[in-house]
Amino acid sequence: MMIRFAMAALLTAVFAAPLHAAIDIQEVTSPGGIEAWLVEDHSIPFAAIEIRFQGGGSLDREGKRGAVNLMTGLLEEGAGEMDAQAFAAARDALAASFGFDSHLDAVSVSARFLTENRDEAMALLREALVNPRFDQEAVDRVRGQVLSGLRSEATDPNTMASRAFYEMAFGTHPYGSDMRGTLESVAALTRDDVVNAYQDALARDRLYVGATGDITAEELGVLLDELLGDLPETGAPLPDPAEVSVTGGVTVIPFETPQSVVFFGDAGIPRDDPDFFAAFVADAILGGSGRQSRLSTEVREKRGLTYGVGTALVNFDLSDMLLGQFASANDRVGQAIGIVRDEWAKIAEEGVTDAELEEAKTYLTGAYPLRFDGNGTIARILVGMQMDGLTPAYVTERNDKVNAVTAEDIRRVAQRLYRPDNLRFVVVGQPEGVESVN
Fold first, then answer.
1. What is the largest distance, in Å, between two alpha-carbon atoms of the chain?
2. Alpha-carbon dihedral 338, 343, 346, 347, rounded to 10 degrees
3. Measuring CA to CA, which residue among 423, 378, 394, 417 is closest to residue 281?
């Protein structure tokens, strides 16, 4: 109990600590050739490591949808000589925290640990990554949890809307289906499928690592080789890029509910496009969350058609989207859709005002440092930057790039991105006066 209390106290201190004036990112290469980014902070005896294996749910083999997701849920359900209960007891005794998660483009592994328990915690994590057991009992139990979640979400309007949209946008590409699989595909998965998914997804050729806290570059290098050096060198090849095939119109999915959920969007802009930051600021003005956007003003504040509406640039590894979502009463959803479409056209035709631009810049540059709010968060940011192809200098250059955006830049990129005739709406509910239109 005392160890757990100490860990909780340290986590509180970490997340309450103010952001340093500058984030000093070191690029580390282990003796065995594993690369990582590190931010040292020796103020408390605690560290965090974030590991990502690129590919994730997109690596599911044909007919085996949900295998990578199921495999990821089993990584801490027993390893080496330890069954699931023994592994959990060993982790808790070390006051360590491990997280395993699957995403459309990656399998993520998060670890937090006290300096005094670093070696033991990393040895335990190594067992989960290198020697997972995949006991049949655990496979059946975790499969049941996945199936329960799928059954619950089968009648969730938000899930129904997003699934339908992605299926229209990406078709048979892995992005076009739920990476957790279907009731049928998950029920049919075998232990051999789980083992195959493990071999496909966890390999050193798609590895990204970020670390923060009480650890030096030399110590991290040794740790990386011990933790990850025995993983296979290569995994399954990544899928081909996904072309966005969405076209303008409205798709209505009838569902008995007092308000309709609306998911909408179009193709986006690559992260490395010269106009990305102009698009980023434009999105913040039109519908980005965290501030008073045009859509929030027009749809929510002036007319009370929704409790919230937001948009975002979404950059997958293999495709780029511009997406949005809101919910509205069935008798008012048609009006809300019309306003969204009008605002889409307005920003393309007229751009933004100088006042809007300055307000957005102030918010975006002021909010950015707040993201670096703890060791675990910083480790995740370091990994995300690497996967986006950024350099360590990005953390100091990012706000300059935001401030450099001009109204003319936004007008130019808005004409590329905001095409109201190409905007697809998926509506789940019983919207009055709204019909499917292709």
1. 65
2. -150
3. 417
Q: What is the C-alpha separation between 301 and 307, in angstroms, rounded?
A: 9
280 pLDDT exceeds 70? yes
Q: Which two tokens stand for residue 280?
A: 């980023």
Inform me whether the pLDDT recorded for 327 exceeds 90.
yes
- Asked if residue 37 lies in contact with residue 211, where contact means CB atoms within 8 angstroms, the answer is yes
Is it the case that residue 18 has pLDDT exceeding 50? no
Q: Band the pLDDT of 433: cuts 50, 70, 90.
A: very high
For residue 85, how far is the Cα from the chain centroid? 29
DSSP string of 114-150, one letter each residue: EGGGHHHHHHHHHHHHHSB---HHHHHHHHHHHHHHH
pLDDT at 22: 65
The tokens for 188 are 């049919």
DSSP 8-state class, residue 297: I
Between the alpha carbon of residue 169 and those of residues 172, 179, 265, 267, the distances in Å are: 10, 15, 9, 9
| Half-sphere exposure in the Cβ direction for 290 (13 Å, CA) | 18
pLDDT at 290 > cutoff 70: no
3-state secondary structure of 211: strand
In this structure, what are the phi and psi dihedrals at residue 246, rounded to the nearest 5 degrees? -65, 140
d(C-alpha 225, C-alpha 29), whole Å: 10
Whole-number Å distance between alpha carbons of 311 and 72: 30
d(CA 142, CA 259): 33
How many residues in the chain? 438
Do the beta carbons of residue 46 and residue 12 sit within 8 Å? no
Per-residue model confidence as pLDDT tens digits over 351-396: 999 999 999 999 999 988 888 888 899 999 999 999 999 999 999 9
